[in-house]
Amino acid sequence: MYETITPQEIQAGRQALLGGNVGGSTNLIVRDVQGSTVYDMEGNAYLDCTSQAWSMNIGLKHPKVIKAVQEQAAMFSHIRTSFDTVPKLLLAKKLTELAPGNLKKVAFALHGGNAIEGAMKIALRNKDNSTKFITMYDGYHGRTFATMNMCWPHPNNIFLNWMNSAVRVPQAYCYRCPFNREYGSCGLECANFIDMAVNKAVDGPPAALIMETIQGNGGMIEYPKEFYQAIRQICDRHAMVLIWDEIQTGFGRPGTYFSSERYDTVPDIIVFGKALGGGYPIAGMLVNENLKSFAPGDQSFTFAHFPISMAASVATLEVMEEENICGQFREKGIYLTKRLKQMQEKYEIIGDVRGPGLMIGIELVKDRKTKEPFCKAEQYMVSEGLKRGLMLGGNKYLDMGNVVKIKPPAVVTYDELDKVLTIFEGLIKDCEAMRNK
Prior knowledge:
single chain, alpha/beta, Aspartate Aminotransferase, domain 1, Aspartate Aminotransferase, domain 2, 2 domains, four-stranded mixed beta sheet, globular
């Protein structure tokens, strides 16, 4: 296939893609991958600091996952959800063993948007006559009709007539506090505001509060530990279901399997996806066993039971334990963050460096004092970085973001991290010159 494709076929294929972020946005055609590296058709190598949409935590093309997939594919690839398989039962058992608190019920889907919708359905089943959801500024939860409105407002959104309205509240974005307060002396005004909003700004009691534990698309924003605990208390006080979107944070990237380990807080539902499958599509939710479950037909998909992805997921969890993936994320995250903070002292445009683990965001600004976002710098670094052999991520889209993401797989070597830093600093120097023009 790779040897026979012609330039005409490449062009025809690209013209056939519909767009809307489901079509290619670069001219790079991937031929092979390995570890932390992507290779194109000409044999050029790229250090992947995107983990391919933050999904390949254990590395690209891990041999144990490939072996599990090959063995499962030789037996069967698809079974109706009505029937059990060994991969499904083993995966369900393992996930509920890893899950915190009473999150002992699991359901599967193929992508995060469907899983978030499933969590919303569970919340509605448990809150009679509730139709509202509380969500955070800059949150991102998917691109289905339901989940799109749970996100930060989509520009030129013509789909609102098909959506229930969400009530958006400020998140604890301490670098850009929406209340112009300083962390440590703010009295968690953001949490107090949310509590008041639930009482006074919502038409009827909300069914749930949905939040990413660390905002991804919003800019790698981690909140103070006490904010998570305050949100838990607010949900308990108002009998709201607390839904944590851990599609990006689950399975190692911040240095833990789930965020409960970091924040000493347990939600009612964790939605997972991305990294679990080791490169194969799978998502789902872990639910408090005391909540009402789905009614028949509430959440049924043809491929919600996909044995190949489930076998890949079981293998991925084994790799995580055998290779100390959480520990690798923690240690390499400390190394990379320390070096980036040293760089921050030298360059005006680095406004903030955020972790944890290898879930790193670097916020770019034109001026440290005003914190004016430097969006052109983010665009330049992502596009120019690719030309220099480095895949970097950006936040938001339509050139609205100013946060560069560095999120390689856990198996990235220290030599590779040093190379990332060298290329990154060169890009920062270019952007400093752009700012000064």
